[in-house]
Amino acid sequence: MEKEQIQYFVNKVSEFIDLYDKPIKRKWILSFPKYPMTILQFYVFRIFICFSFCLKLEAYLRFASLKYTVVSKPNFNLAPKGKLPFIERNGEILDFHYHWINDQIEFDPDSNLVSDEKAIALATKRLLEDHLYFIIMKQRWLTKDGYNFTKTCFKDIPWYCRSCILSKIKKNVQNTLHLQGLGRFSDDELYELANEDIKCLSSLLGESEYVFGTQEPTSLDIYIFSFIASIIQLPYDYPLKTLVMNKRNLVNHCKRIGHLYFQEYDWDFE
């Protein structure tokens, strides 16, 4: 989809609903230092928690104890790579969020990890962002149940342009997945690939509260939480969700991180 089409879609949605994040609980506001910044992201109908990358950025900011404001009427022309989310601070546009956050406040959640653990963490992040993410995308847009739910997220868009917008996004996702490669696999093949990914994450976590057995979360814990939460928080059953729900250590890990950093949401799901 072209930037102009996406921008038109965002503008139309914003005319019909309030697209600003609900206030963070007072305890969060009081505990965060004054470090004003704005996250521009896709926060449609308050289900950002279903979008892995948006959830990941917010989780990381809370992990670093940084105060921020969420705005969901972004100008896509400002997005460095034409994608959301990105950060704006004092007129500066940032997309390498995590390096910038770490550099600005000398924040290093992985300082206690040895080199081998850091290598494993990086490889696992690539598994999440460059493999599992695309399986999630196919499920959301190119399966019957997934698309039926996805359409409900756009229900307040005017009827006269809703179908056109949805079909353009769906076609764009289909083309992206085909070029990436995973769109060429059957549903059964993708299920097996997803099963391998989930088993890998579960084995890596083991019986520890956090990956690598640390006392506090590392950056990899935030990444895993963001993708697992985006899978199991959807309000319907589907094969990928079942795979995750059968790994109780991943479910408990998700709840643990959720209760730590997103206390305004319900994490007592089963």
Spatially, the strands of the biggest sheet line up as 2-1-3-4
- Taken in chain order, the helices and strands follow as HHEHEEEHHHHHHHH
Cα distance, first to last residue? 36 Å
Q: What is the number of beta strands?
A: 4
Q: Segments where pLDDT lies below 50 for 5+ residues?
A: 12-35
**How many H/I helices?**
11
CATH architecture: Up-down Bundle
**Strand-residue proportion:** under 5%
Q: At the third CATH level, what is the topology name?
A: Glutathione S-transferase Yfyf (Class Pi), Chain A, domain 2
CATH C-level class is Mainly Alpha
What is the overall silhouette? globular
How much helix is in the residues?
55-70%
Which secondary-structure class do the elements indicate?
mainly alpha
Largest sheet: 4 strands, mixed
Integer tally of domains = 1
Whole-number radius of gyration?
Answer: 18 Å
| Average of per-residue pLDDT values | 81
Domain Metaxin glutathione S-transferase: 194-257
GO cellular component, one term: cytoplasm
Domain Thioredoxin-like fold: 53-145
Family: Belongs to the FAX family.
